[in-house]
């Protein structure tokens, strides 16, 4: 006689409950052991990348750099970074995350400190170019690394939890920069030299920590049980997706239209972002006429607004992904429009009561985009093609880091201030919002042709 259905249901429920418990435990351990360390690493990277925005308050005067020289040097970092992205990510796949990420961090830390010796435009250009080469591959490498640990429906939250180091590092940098610049003349050293010397040290220390404590993948994590390793492996390698590009070669991955669309969007977004990031202290100084120390604290306070925006929007985005993958785009597009509006307001006024709230809205909107956005590329590919595709998207995007600062430097030298440049800087993200609308329509078509629903995520992540 067949077993009663209620008994089968109970056995099935027990199996599901056990699987959910294993998943919660695995994700909790991965979050606690990996995310804080990666967040510290990316925070150090971002600080060393953009600390010249504060150094510019002195270095442009001391070394007689024009706005064009400064903007070109600030942006030059991103050209070498872009050129080395894909090779770096493939080498990470070859040598493992622990060794390769540690190598990246120690190298860029040493070069960041070597900015101390810059005295001419040529030296400035050379050091920024070398710094970009050294740091290349860190961010896309981390994205690729995290996709080996977290299934698709948890990735926006995982990314946002390390990516909050971007606004937090800006907070720390803003609070520290004023004090370091005020050391101007101590021991015969300029304030901007103190800034580079001290802010380059954390990357070297963290590189050593990465080498000692970061596991290459779940199979090498001693703090996971066998059941937890099996759960992660099963969820990562059997995860359904709304696309079908998991087994493509590297060449075909790089030619995939989705990679190009995301890459162009990233370029437009980073043109806007780095166009204002490298001059933000100067914008605040012009609007408020306060001391460098107070400007630093204002910039720090504004960047703090980005933390809850990033975390909350990523959580809602993952919930949307679990229901319908194409809905994740709605957690990016409206924020793009708000970034554009904020920049236009900054460009149309120099009054602090308009500029400071507009900068706050700008920082909230830009940070809200990041988690949902960076959860998109890992859903397209797996294996070596995933490493290449993620790096390709970031390579396209990072070129915007050259365009934005160089454009703003030229705009200031041609017009006498940054105002017209800020207004026109609002246009790229409006174009980017149109690209994402097109991608969303394509994703909806893919879903309607038979994509498999995403499994429920462990609730405790």
Characterize this entry briefly.
By secondary structure, the chain is mainly alpha-helical. The chain is 77% helix and 0% strand. Helix 1 (5-50) runs antiparallel to helix 10.
Q: Can you name the CATH architecture?
A: Up-down Bundle
| Helix vs. strand class | mainly alpha
Quick one: how many beta strands? 0
Instruction: Specify Rg, calculated over alpha carbons.
Output: 23 Å
Q: Compute the average pLDDT.
A: 85
Annotated CATH homologous superfamily = MFS general substrate transporter like domains
Shape category: globular
Domains, number: 1
Major β-sheet, in short?
Answer: none
What does this structure look like?
This protein has 461 residues and is mostly helical. Helices cover 77% and strands 0% of the residues. Helix 1 (5-50) packs across helix 11.
Characteristics of this structure?
about 450 residues, mainly alpha, Growth Hormone, Chain: A, globular
Topology:
Blueprint: H1 5-50, H2 52-62, H3 67-95, H4 97-114, H5 121-135, H6 138-146, H7 152-163, H8 165-181, H9 191-199, H10 201-213, H11 226-237, H12 250-255, H13 257-277, H14 280-288, H15 292-304, H16 306-323, H17 333-348, H18 352-374, H19 383-398, H20 400-415, H21 419-424, H22 427-448
Helix pairs in contact: 1-4, 1-7, 1-8, 1-10, 1-11, 2-9, 3-4, 3-5, 3-6, 3-19, 3-20, 4-5, 4-6, 4-9, 4-10, 6-19, 7-16, 7-18, 8-15, 13-19, 13-20, 13-22, 14-15, 16-18, 17-18, 17-22
């Amino acid at each position: 006689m067949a077993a009663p259905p209620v008994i089968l249901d109970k056995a099935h429920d027990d199996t599901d409950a056990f699987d959910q418990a294993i998943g919660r435990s695995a994700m909790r351990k991965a979050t606690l052991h990996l995310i804080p360390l990666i967040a510290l690493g990316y925070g150090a990277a971002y600080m060393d990348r953009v600390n010249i925005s504060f150094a510019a308050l002195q270095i442009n005067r001391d070394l007689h750099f024009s706005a064009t020289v400064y903007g070109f040097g600030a942006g030059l970092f991103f050209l070498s970074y872009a050129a080395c992205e894909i090779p770096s990510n493939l080498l990470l796949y070859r040598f493992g995350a622990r060794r390769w990420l540690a190598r990246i961090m120690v190298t860029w830390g040493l070069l960041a400190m070597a900015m101390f010796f810059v005295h001419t435009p040529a030296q400035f250009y050379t050091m920024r170019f070398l710094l970009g080469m050294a740091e290349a591959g860190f961010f896309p490498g981390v994205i690729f690394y995290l996709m080996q640990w977290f299934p698709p429906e948890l990735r926006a939250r995982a990314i946002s939890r390390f990516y909050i180091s971007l606004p937090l590092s800006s907070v720390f940098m803003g609070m520290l920069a004023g004090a370091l610049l005020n050391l101007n003349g101590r021991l015969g050293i300029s304030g901007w030299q103190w800034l580079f010397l001290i802010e380059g040290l954390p990357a070297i220390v963290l590189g050593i920590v990465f080498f000692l404590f970061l596991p290459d993948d779940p199979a090498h994590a001693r703090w996971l049980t066998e059941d937890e390793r099996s759960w992660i492996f099963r969820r990562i390698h059997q995860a359904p997706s709304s696309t079908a590009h998991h087994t493509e070669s590297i060449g075909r991955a790089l030619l995939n239209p989705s990679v190009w669309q995301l890459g162009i969007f990233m370029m437009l977004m980073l043109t806007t972002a780095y166009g204002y990031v490298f001059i933000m202290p100067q914008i605040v100084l012009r609007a408020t006429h306060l001391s460098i120390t107070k400007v630093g604290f204002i910039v720090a306070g504004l960047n703090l607004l980005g933390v809850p925006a990033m975390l909350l929007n990523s959580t809602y985005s993952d919930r949307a992904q679990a229901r319908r993958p194409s809905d994740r785009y709605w957690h990016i597009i409206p924020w793009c429009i708000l970034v554009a509006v904020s920049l236009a307001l900054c460009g149309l006024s120099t009054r602090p009561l308009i500029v400071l709230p507009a900068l706050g809205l700008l920082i909230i909107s830009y940070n809200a985009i990041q988690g949902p956005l960076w959860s998109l590329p890992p859903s397209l590919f797996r294996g070596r093609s995933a490493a290449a595709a993620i790096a390709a998207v970031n390579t396209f995007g990072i070129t915007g880091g050259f365009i934005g600062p160089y454009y703003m430097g030229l705009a200031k030298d041609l017009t006498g201030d940054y105002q017209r440049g800020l207004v026109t800087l609002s246009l790229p993200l409006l174009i980017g919002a149109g690209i994402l609308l097109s991608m969303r329509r394509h994703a909806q078509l893919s879903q309607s042709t038979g994509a498999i629903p995403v499994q429920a995520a462990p609730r405790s992540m």
